[in-house]
Amino acid sequence: MNIFIPKKEDISSCAEVYISAYEAEPWNEKYDRESVKRYISDYLGSETKQCFAAEENGKIIGIALGIIVPSIDAPFLRIEDFCVSAEAQGRGYGKEIMRLVCEKAKESGCDSVLLGTLRDFPSHKFYLKNGFSEVDSVLLYKEL
Question: How far apart are CA 106 and CA 36, in angstroms?
Fold first, then answer.
């Protein structure tokens, strides 16, 4: 497996992975392809925004989108989206992609990785199995 920073010509393939993953259970989300392509493109070409793509046999099978957040001690990577295409799930790719993303974050000077998920979703168990710990924190939201 290869993990890399995608180029503009990879955006459509990355969008297909995103749509495939989020159309499946348990999310059942429907997204417009052009909106997803714009969203992923926003993570390219930035010092603080990060986009990673994973490919196996020349096909993109997973993506991770994150933001490097400055901190007093050391920056950390906050993962905003992480997904593996529906057809590649359950084969260990997610574990390997996450390992490689964490490795890349460490190489960039980050001392930790932070992400959010919902407790009742399979992603929660996935992250726990892959070395993440729950922290006492409250996520708050305000619509503008």
Answer: 28
The answer to whether the beta carbons of residues 36 and 19 sit under 8 Å apart is: yes
Does the CA dihedral 108-38-116-60 come out positive or negative?
negative
Q: Please give the full DSSP string across 12-75, using - where no structure is assigned.
A: HHHHHHHHHHHHSTTT-----HHHHHHHHHTTSS-SSEEEEEEEETTEEEEEEEEEEE--SS--
Please say if the pLDDT value at position 112 is more than 90. Answer: yes
- Single out the residue of 116, 47, 133, 56 nearest to residue 81, CA to CA: 116
Residue 40: is it exposed, middle or buried by C-beta count within 10 angstroms (0-12/13-18/19+)? buried
Round to whole Å and give the CA distance between 91 and 141.
35
The pLDDT > 90 percentage for the chain reads: 85
In what helix (H) or strand (E) does residue 95 lie, and over which residues does it extend?
helix 93-107
**pTM beyond 0.85, yes or no:** yes
How far is residue 77's CA from residue 132's CA, in Å, rounded to a whole number? 13
